[in-house]
Amino acid sequence: MRYNLSREGYRVTGSLTGEDAYRRVRSDPFDLIVLDLMLPGMDGLAFTRTLKSDSRLSRIPIIMLTAKGEEADIVSGLELGADDYITKPFSPKVLIARVRTALRRQKEAPQDEMAIVNIHELEINPGRRSVQARGESIDLTYTEFQLLLLLAKRPGWVFTRTQIVDLIRGSDYPVTDRSVDVQIVGLRKKLGPYGKYIETVRGVGYRFRETP
Question: Which CATH code, of 1.10.10.10, 3.40.1190.10, 2.160.10.10, 1.10.274.10, is assigned to 112-208?
Answer without folding.
Answer: 1.10.10.10
